[in-house]
Amino acid sequence: MNSRVLVLNQDFSPLMVCSVERAFILVYLNKSELVRPANGYRLHTVTHSYPMPSVIRLNRYVNAPYKGVTLTRQNVFKRDNQECQYCGTRRDLTLDHVIPSSRGGQHSWLNLVTACKRCNAKKGDYTPEEANMPLKRKPFKPSYALFLRDVTGSNHNEWDEFLEKKSI
């Protein structure tokens, strides 16, 4: 059972994630509408049964400031799926600058990757090409929508169509 619900703004842009209970109350009070129910799950009262929400849309537009994903060590690890971008291991992880800081490499989403200590030491003060260590995946700045999906740690297939069109 999905215990989290994706909340969309009136224009169908992802806004936040909330609990099933909060989402149900918003739908019940006509402050939002049910867009996607959680597959096969229902909420029961003594006399009624309601579909459990997985995605809801607010009836009023909420003017929310731009939400970006903060560049932190843990967020880079999440983006890179907790694995070394050179060898694929999930042990002894650290951050690596693709273009070394000593060569003017920035501390940014596009220049930081997750690396194990062994690969980081092996790469040293070289670029991946110079060290003959190709990256498994090019670093990118994650969108807020993709980050929302990953915040719960479970797979919500009902959310995909609303998050994919908003990703970078």
Protein described:
The protein is α+β, with helices and mostly antiparallel strands and 168 residues long. The chain has two domains: 1-61, no CATH class; 69-153, DNA Binding (I), subunit A (Orthogonal Bundle). It has five helices and six strands. It is elongated, with a radius of gyration of 20 Å. The two termini are 29 Å apart. The model has no long low-confidence stretch (mean pLDDT 89).
Give the SSE layout.
Blueprint: E1 4-8, E2 14-19, H1 20-28, E3 32-44, E4 49-58, H2 73-79, E5 93-97, E6 112-116, H3 117-123, H4 144-151, H5 160-164
What descriptive keywords fit this protein?
DNA Binding (I), subunit A, single chain, 4-stranded mixed sheet, two-stranded antiparallel ribbon, 5 helices, 168 residues, alpha+beta
Q: What's the short story on this structure?
A:
The protein is an alpha+beta fold and 168 residues long. It has 2 domains: 1-61, no CATH class; 69-153, DNA Binding (I), subunit A, CATH 1.10.30.
For the largest beta sheet, what order do the strands appear in spatially? 2-1-4-3
**Beta-sheet strand percentage?**
25-35%
Give unreliable regions as ranges: none
* Overall mean pLDDT: 89
Give Rg in angstroms: 20 Å
Helicity level, as a percent range? 10-25%
Largest beta-sheet details: 4 strands, mixed
Span from first to last CA? Answer: 29 Å
Give the domain tally.
Answer: 2
Quaternary structure state of the chains depicted: single chain
The string of secondary-structure elements, in order, is EEHEEHEEHHH
Total beta strand runs: 6
CATH architecture title of the largest domain: Orthogonal Bundle
Shape: elongated
Q: With helices defined by DSSP (H or I, 4 residues minimum), what is the helix count?
A: 5
